[in-house]
Amino acid sequence: xxxxxxxxxxxxxxxxxxxxxxxxxxxxxxxxxxxxxxxxxxxxxxxxxxxxxxxxxxxxxxxxxxxxxxxxxxxxxxxxxxxxxxxxxxxxxxx
Length: 95
Prior knowledge:
Distance between the termini: 12 Å
Largest sheet: 4 strands, antiparallel
Mean pLDDT: 94
Shape: elongated
Number of helices: 3
Helix content: 25-40%
Strand content: 25-35%
Radius of gyration: 14 Å
Structural class: alpha+beta
Number of strands: 4
Oligomer: single chain
Low-confidence stretches: none
Strand order of the largest sheet: 2-3-1-4
């Protein structure tokens, strides 16, 4: 499992120029079953994604294809998490 932080960079003012491509990139991640959750980092600091069923190399490739990353609107940080305990609603993550 990976937690991806997309922290706004100095180029954040260009976000509107690449928002449509970023949304399409996010949707592709959901369509493939890799992205489970995405949302905004508060206050106005960028975005976050939870990804599963993917290797470190695969998620690094995926993140590198985000138009926001390509255009330096955000700086990505990929954190790998190996769950050892979960609420029963998330128990599938421990399999």
